[in-house]
Amino acid sequence: MKCQFCGAENIRSHGPCRICGKALGEVGLGSRPREGVGAKPTGTPMHDVSYAARTERLTTEEIARGMRMEYAQWSTDSTQKIMETIQELLVAARSDKLNIADLLDKAAKMVHQQFRLRWVAIGTRIERDGLYRYNAFAGLREDAMKARQRETFKREDFDGAGKYPGRMISHQTMLFLEEDKPYTEGAEATFNRPALMNSQRRSPEDCLEADYLDVHIFGGKDDLLGWIEASGTLTGKLPDVNTIRWIEMIASILGVALSRRQSKA
């Protein structure tokens, strides 16, 4: 049934609208119920749901079928698609056959595709020497990916000072802007389009070639286990706050998985 207030389509013809929450069949704002739909017997308040809707008898199978249909419709919304892919990561992270390489690759591709980012890279700390290296990529050109695979980082490189000047957005996220030159000499090759570097930023939302976010992957006591590095969107904008919060959630899932691996070592 189409909601008379917001126009959203609903599986059921009674109860609250799935979008605006108002009662389906409710009369208000100058609307009038169609004959036979939402009609009220004498004495029934006009703001109440239809008398027929409140008194009709449904079988348990009809109730279950309606909920299945609503569940299927729910999963077509973009937010729900993100939640579904996060659920997949959770299943992989808690698996007895946890494969960290596969999990990081899945996470990189998921972040890249779901949030329509130009590129994504994920790195972790290597326990044998305590240095941080890239492990998974999505959206990077082959030459840029190989250049990144040769890089190593120390813990202090993620604090937004020193060689990589950045700005704190949250406890978990640092923003690196091209104007601050958040890369070392010769590291231009680690970006997809180095020829576009040093372009002019025309609005605060614009994303330049060398702009990127680092979302930290923490273990217990804020032990930095790795990071998710992400560029701007395909439309040339910096990621919005919703995107950052989703990526922080994904980083937290990876933190649990990496902590599990650490405890088994």
What can you see in these coordinates?
The protein has 265 residues and is of the alpha+beta class. Helix content is 32%, strand content 12%. The chain has helices at 51-55, 60-74, 78-94, 100-114, 142-149, 241-264, and strands at residues 120-125, 132-138, 167-168, 173-176, 212-218, 224-230. Strands 2-1-6-5-4-3 form a 6-stranded antiparallel sheet. Strand 1 (120-125) and strand 2 form a beta hairpin. It is globular. The termini are far apart. Residues 27-55 have low confidence and may be disordered.
Mean pLDDT across the residues is 84
- The global form is globular
Estimated helix fraction: 25-40%
Number of strands: 6
Q: What structural class results from the helix and strand content?
A: alpha+beta
The low-confidence runs, each spanning 5 or more residues with pLDDT under 50, are 27-55
Distance between the termini: 56 Å
Order of helices and strands: HHHHEEHEEEEH
Number of helices: 6
Which value, in Å, is the CA radius of gyration?
25 Å
Provide the spatial order of strands within the biggest beta sheet.
2-1-6-5-4-3
Beta-strand fraction estimate: 5-15%
* Main β sheet profile: 6 strands, antiparallel
